[in-house]
Model the fold of this input.
Amino acid sequence: MTDALEKLRQWLQTYPRIAAMRSLKVDYFEPDPDNGSLAPTGLVEISRTEDILGNVTVENQYNFALYFVLAKAPGDDVGATANAKLLLDLQNWVQEQSIRHLVPVFGDDPRRETVKAQNGAIWEADGDGIARYMVQLSINFIKHYEVM
Done:
């Protein structure tokens, strides 16, 4: 998954609002605003088929959590609204990138790959003006394995 992780991180950093952040780390984020973290949450095998020669085609799904640390003071509707717009904009950007096939290739059939960003929400907020948000990312892709 290491190559997939780096591909995803590099691609996400082309989204302008993430590119403006100080960092997009793996499994860790700085406690101050304008930082992010990408956390792998696993590989799921969706389906597996085998032909009469024993060749196998597998549909897989990588899952990730994308966290943002952003400024949001308690009761600050302006900051909360800006942060919510960021989450929605990112999810729309991912959808458009996937539809236009502008996402990294993870499998053997690029035309059948999809990347989704969904369920963006506030994860936690503290009284010091810091909020953490999370978006779920999933990547569906096909792998072909031929018998030698």
User: Anything to note?
Assistant: The two ends are 24 Å apart (CA to CA). The chain has a mean pLDDT of 90. The longest helix spans residues 77-99. The first strand starts at residue 23 and ends at 26.
